Amino acid sequence: MIMKLKTMMMFKILTIWITVFLLGSLLFFPAGISKVWATEESGQTQMVTVTLDGKPLKQQGIQGKEGVLVPLELIRKGLKLPVKYDAKSKQYTIKRQNVIVQLQPTESGANATVNGSTQILPYEWKVIGDKPYVSVKVLTDHLGYTSSWNEESKTLNLVPHRMNDIKVSTRTINESIPEATIKVQYPQVSGLRSKEAEKKINTLLQSKADTFVKDALKEAKESQPSPNGSKYEYQANYTVTYNRNGVLSILEQTYAYTGGAHGNSVRDGLNFRLSDGKLLTLDELLRANPKYREIVDPAIKKKFEETEGYFGNFTTVGPNPSYYLKDDGVVIFFQLYEYVPYVNGFAEFYFPFTELLPAGANPFDFKD
User: Fold this and answer.
1) Is 131 in contact with 71 (CB distance < 8 Å)?
2) What are the chain's domains?
3) Preceding peptide of 225 cis, ω within 30°
4) Which of 18, 276, 309, 354 could be 341's S-S partner, Cβ–Cβ 3.0 to 4.6 Å?
5) What is the pLDDT of residue 343?
């Protein structure tokens, strides 16, 4: 069942927007899903064996503060992905299929841009000698890999998956008025076999962005001045959390600061079937087990009850849970303040398909 709680604290991020925009999550990982958390050993570097589909790679990883770091040399030579370095911008670029990840090392980590979309949280980064290392999460978050950890042998196994043969690009809307600044990054897709489905998806994504900007401008003009006299700030961003098996999962997050101690963020999980552009509900994805709530409800309730500050009153995820796809399962999430204090961030619960569906059931084998 669910076994690990992670609260991501954002106090190292300097601006109020960044602090709130991606204020961390209560992220719970079920058994069988490997997330490696390192312990610092004074003056020592703990080496990690890395395998690719079970076959050892020549290059080794190291334990970092929040998991395994892999050398860029391993990505280039072991995984055979193109890795380029631009001396002028001091930026690394990694590419796999239609995904381009740009890494900009800083003192606090490597800032990432994925197909033009700014990822707010930096990835752990370390240089030993002249060899740069980056969190393996760059591979599992964006480049179609999953990972598993063997505690006994201290081995990290990477498994590559074929991503959908589509391209996700980023469009940006910038607005500045005396009352507010607005910056929105939103996705557009191309390369789908069905141009009708492509248009359907893009129309929805653009409409959501346009509506956010329109509502922000209206609120700023009607509600200013703010309590502390500062301009309002509105931001929106996204990340692709899953791009396989004919399904595209996008996690969008908006942020609004209208004065006071902090702003507020809202998340939206959008899970598209690429064959026709349909937005999939969790019930539709888990149709092989209509009683999946009997699994997730007690597990989530138990974790909430173990969480300090829990408000109480959780009974069920309800008829249309918010979710996104990740690795080989789903993440069910709740908004800020819904069941836990603001400082706890977004409550997220990961469940692998193996826990939710009958043996042999394929959530992506759509018959209709």
Assistant:
1) yes
2) 34-160 (3.30.457.10), 167-356 (3.30.565.40)
3) yes
4) 309
5) 85
